[in-house]
TrEMBL record:
Record carries keyword Cytoplasm: no
Any one biological process term the GO annotation gives: carbohydrate metabolic process
A Pfam family assignment: Glyco_hydro_65C
Protein name: Glycoside hydrolase family 65 protein
Keywords (A to Z) from UniProt: Hydrolase
Length: 200
């Protein structure tokens, strides 16, 4: 645990290095001597492990956001997902927009060579695991939805234990499935019999 970050340090000695502006590109030998990151691996670990407090995840997000160069096409979607998880929907949406526009606007000036498929998967994950708040745990399918103010509604489908589940998030949360299942919404367990519509 890093006292300054309130989270876990990346790269071993990074906490001992000085801050550095990320506005310009420098030779890697220069960059390696400063506190900069290409990808937010610690932030990603919070998404995968899901065993830290909201405070630790928020501290890690805020700390590593300022040191990440966003040179990787997978960075913005990771930041979008964790921003959603910590409840900062505006930042989540801003990172989502950057991620979704990456190939559409040729932001890396290399779309002619092919699409960034890992980023495309990250865009889907930003919707499902970020804004949809999907967590698959031992005790069931959890949803913690949060809708960006820029959207009227959004929906997605996923397969859970052999069932196709459709989730729609708008003024209400709507869930469709064949047969019945249980879902946990913001910590409260609900039974779904083909269709459920609730406030969230």
């Amino acid at each position: 645990m890093d006292g300054e970050a309130g989270g876990y340090p990346e790269g071993g000695r990074r906490g001992a290095l000085g801050d550095y502006p990320l506005l310009l590109h420098y030779h890697p030998l220069t960059v390696y001597r400063h506190k900069v990151l290409k990808r937010p691996d610690t932030v990603l670990a919070h998404l995968l492990l899901d065993n830290e407090s909201d405070e630790v995840m928020r501290n890690s997000f805020e700390y590593y956001e300022k040191y990440t160069t966003h040179d990787s096409s997978m960075t913005d979607c990771v930041h979008s997902m964790l921003a959603s998880r910590i409840g900062d929907l505006q930042k989540a949406y801003d990172f989502f927009r950057k991620s979704i526009q990456l190939d559409l606007d040729d932001l890396c000036h290399n779309t002619v060579d092919g699409l960034h498929m890992a980023n495309a998967g990250g865009v889907y994950m930003s919707v499902v695991y970020g804004f949809g708040g999907v967590r698959i745990k031992e005790d069931g399918l959890h949803l913690h939805p949060g809708k960006p103010k820029e959207w009227e509604r959004f929906s997605f489908k996923l397969n859970y234990r052999g069932k196709e589940v459709e989730v729609m998030v708008g003024e209400f949360l709507e869930i469709r499935c064949k047969g019945s299942m249980e879902v946990i919404v913001n910590g409260k367990r609900h039974n779904v019999y083909e269709y459920l519509k609730i406030g969230y």
